[in-house]
Amino acid sequence: MGSRKNDFGDGASPGKIFIGGLAKETTREQFVKYFEKYGEIIDSVIMKDRQTGRPRGFGFITFADPTVVDTVIAENHIINDKQVEIKRTIPKGSADSKDFKTRKIFVGGIPTTMTEVMSRLRNGLLKV
Predict the structure, then answer these.
(1) Where do the RRM domain residues begin and end (predicted)?
(2) What is the pLDDT of residue 4?
(3) Cα 7 to the chain's mean position, in Å?
């Protein structure tokens, strides 16, 4: 557990999920403890900034049994008093596939001072 071989789109396994919106103070131990109730975890990582070493607010969990992923995705999750978002990882190269239909991107690490701007973007009041 804890290796960092793969990032979001790099050789994703069927049991691998992306967890976004983690509280910065979430430890790897808390992270693993939260998700191990769903099944055996074979890998886990909380991504960190290369320069500062501080958590970036997202991570990955890989379950031994890929069938638990649907259960995990279907539920709401709150870790350290913060709701997190769970997504299935996408194998590299699949993004070009005609089966890949999402037009969303994950943007993390936005300062709280950007709340109003982000709210206006979500509500369609600003154009990108």
Answers:
(1) 15-91
(2) 43
(3) 10
Q: Is domain 16-92 given the CATH code 3.30.70.330 in the classification?
A: yes
CA distances from 18 to 13, 59, 81, 85, 119 (A): 11, 6, 18, 8, 23
d(CA 31, CA 45): 9
pLDDT for residue 7 is more than 50? no
Task: State the pLDDT confidence band at 1, using cuts at 50, 70 and 90.
Answer: very low
Residue listed under structure tokens 């804890």: 2
pLDDT for 115 equals 74
Locate the domains of the chain by residue range: 16-92
The residue to which tokens 């509280």 are assigned: 23
Instruction: Report yes or no: 14 and 42 within 8 Å, Cβ to Cβ.
Output: no
What CA–CA distance (Å, rounded) separates 64 from 42? 6
